[in-house]
Amino acid sequence: MDLAHISFIFLSLLLTVNCIMWNLEPNTRKCLREELQQNIPVIGEFEVTEALGQSVDYVVTDSKGHILAKQQGITKGKFSFNTESFDTYEICFVSQVPANLKGVAQEVSLVTKHGVETKNYDSYGEAAQLKPIEKELKRLEDLSEAIVKDFAIMRQREEEMRDTNESTNSRVLYFSVFSMCCLLGLATWQVLYLRTYFKAKKLIE
């Protein structure tokens, strides 16, 4: 097996699609969160089993509560949005059951893709008149760039966390020294005060 084939397998394994399925109980809310970088395209495909008299809504928001996508009474469909900043994004599914119904659990399936995963290389290859191998190389090139960017972001965050830890350690050290000085000063003051008090009461000379 040559190096190119090994690299292809490795990069293909890194290209994953998030797929999840769960049972949504009546009149409950289920939310999924993911932290994403700025300017990342996200697409999702969902399907909800139908139940008589019941409905399910979904809403996509960021940490500030801005609504990026929403729909009521869903059964099957798709949504898409672009991240505006580095943030935690939340997808919530909400079950709505009238008070006069007992309600049953509904099965919800969700497939999400982001970044390079959202690109349709078949359409791109046809538009650019690329051969299959050229189309696959383009996909691997984009995937490699995405991985390099992810590693760069991880390195930057590691540096930020290290700087924060060092700053916190310095502050803790200074606070510990300050606390020791305060304790020593308080102990010295107590000894002097008690000595003066005992002398005033003529308990010591």
Automatic annotation (TrEMBL):
SMART domains noted in UniProt: EMP24_GP25L
Domain spans labelled GOLD: 29-139
Keyword match Signal: yes
Compartment(s) of residence: Membrane
Transmembrane feature ranges: 172-194
InterPro entries reported for this sequence: Emp24-like, GOLD_dom
Membrane topology category: Single-pass type I membrane protein
UniProt key word Nucleotide-binding: no
Signal peptide as annotated in the record: 1-19
GO cellular component, one term: membrane
Main location: membrane
Similarity-based family: Belongs to the EMP24/GP25L family.
PANTHER family for this protein: TRANSMEMBRANE EMP24 DOMAIN-CONTAINING PROTEIN
Protein name, entry field: GOLD domain-containing protein
